[in-house]
Amino acid sequence: MQQISEFASIQNIEEIVCPPLVRQSSLNIIKNQPEKTNETLSQIEEASHPEDDLSFGYLFLAVFSHVLQDLVRKRYFSLRKQALTTLLQKGIEHPTFRQGIKPEEYQRARPYIENIKAFFPDVILFPAHDQETEFFEQKANHQKIELWLEKWQVRPHFPKYKAYYLNERSPNERLILKEKVHQLLQNSRHHPGTRRVYFQFLSFHHYYSEGIKTLLNETGDPLKCSFEEQRFIEALNVTDVNVSSLIAFFHQWIESFVEKRTKRHYQEAITYLPALQSCYKQTTEPERFYTWIDGLYTRFSGYHSFKKELKHYVDTA
User: Fold this and answer.
1) Domain boundaries, the chain
2) What does the mean pLDDT of the chain come to?
3) pLDDT tens digits for 34-66?
4) What is the DSSP string of the chain?
5) Stretch 233-244: mean pLDDT, rounded?
6) For residue 242, how far is the Cα from the chain centroid?
7) CA proximity to 271, closest of 258, 283, 254, 255
8) How far apart are CA 119 and CA 117, in angstroms?
9) Is the predicted pLDDT of residue 166 greater than 80, yes or no?
10) Is the dihedral of CA 98, 111, 146, 46 positive or negative?
11) What is the pLDDT of residue 266?
12) pLDDT grade, residue 3 (50/70/90)?
């Protein structure tokens, strides 16, 4: 048989593949040989080549539509309607009938679908209540997302993701895009460039708890935080994150600087005290901020340079 790759360049490849299948299938039905139904499906499956836009689903629709027309022309339709119904139902139940067919194949198959529905109006070829178009639009969108991600993940760029996300009209497709990008960024967040995009993503989608956990557990030197991580922290005070969680975060974050024992780290630690104090002011006991400050003096009693920076903040606050 001629290689199927040669058929790929032919616009109507079913014109080459279908005729022998149609002739044999029609003959089996006319001879009333229902036991050969599975044989017909096997032949269609064997002739299909999904990689060349000739999936089982598309080829079955083409073959069945031609068989149907052949039996109508020969006036066998009424006599063999039950056999046709059996073939149609078994074809639809084939595991790759719906999932294997591509959106572009579906568009080419529309005449076959309309022809089949004209004779079998109650048969549901694709998802319930006649939503074939929506079904394949979703499949096309999924494939579009996959192709976009394949290119985007080579060099993640947050503005490109944001633009794609905001321009996507379907809420379902937005969710799929967000989940796939989220997973991709999570898996690659240890790469510095991806980590920056990751924190932009977390800020945009308000995944603050995840960002807080990542900062506390996966930051070697807090002084080396990227601009994107700093912006994430700055935004925390105006988010809907529980204030007790914010207080706990700033406690650990400030102490992580102090533990590095350099003047630069001490100075940077002090810059986060206003944010912490602001959190305490949102509680019923704002004076506990100074109780915590006293605890710092005690805990880091041997850190004289830090105590000097801390005293200056308290005196001028």
Assistant:
1) 4-126, 128-239, 242-317
2) 86
3) 788 888 888 888 887 776 667 888 888 989 999
4) ---HHHHTTSTTTHHHHHHHHHHHHHHHHHTT-GGGHHHHHHHHHHH-BGGGTB-HHHHHHHHHHHHHHHHHHTT-TTTTHHHHHHHHHHHHTSTTTTTS--HHHHHHHHHHHHHHHHH-TT---SSTTT-HHHHHHHHHHHHHHHHHHHHHTTS--HHHHHHHHHH---HHHHHHHHHHHHHHHHHTTTSHHHHHHHHHHHHHTT-HHHHHHHHHHS-S-GGG--HHHHHHHHHGGGS-S-HHHHHHHHHHHHHHHHTT-SHHHHHHHHHTHHHHHHHHHTSS-TTHHHHHHHHHHHHTTT-HHHHHHHHHHHHH-
5) 84
6) 29
7) 254
8) 5
9) yes
10) positive
11) 96
12) very low
Query: Which pLDDT does position 59 carry in this prediction?
Result: 87
Token pair in block for residue 162 = 């944001």
The residue length of the chain stands at 317
User: Amino acid letter at 251?
Assistant: H
Q: Does residue 229 have a pLDDT over 70?
A: yes
